[in-house]
């Protein structure tokens, strides 16, 4: 009574006919990029210099913070003496 009705053919016909695809568009040649040894050395030296400057700024910030804490503690005890 509630059984599905199966089609007579084992495989259904394709929904759309198969068409041959057009050829892929021609790709433009990619320009060659040559990296010289001097450019690599310049990038490495620049990275080292920037890293050293960042470390110097960090050390300076820590030392200023420590000096501020020490000065604050010294000035806070001043009126009590």
Automatic annotation (TrEMBL):
What are the record keywords, sorted? Membrane, Transmembrane, Transmembrane helix
Query: Where does the record place Pro residues bias?
Result: 7-16
Q: Which domain of life is it from?
A: Bacteria
- Where do the TM regions start and end? 38-71
Show the segment(s) annotated as Disordered. Answer: 1-28
List the source organism.
Streptomyces prasinosporus
* UniProt name for this protein: SpdD protein
């Amino acid at each position: 009574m509630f059984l599905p009705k199966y089609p007579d053919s084992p495989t259904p016909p394709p929904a759309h006919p198969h068409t041959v695809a057009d050829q892929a568009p021609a790709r433009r040649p990619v320009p060659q990029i040559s990296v010289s040894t001097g450019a690599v050395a310049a990038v490495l030296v620049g990275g080292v210099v920037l890293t050293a400057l960042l470390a110097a700024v960090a050390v300076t910030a820590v030392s200023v913070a420590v000096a501020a804490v020490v000065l604050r503690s010294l000035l806070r005890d001043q009126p009590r003496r």
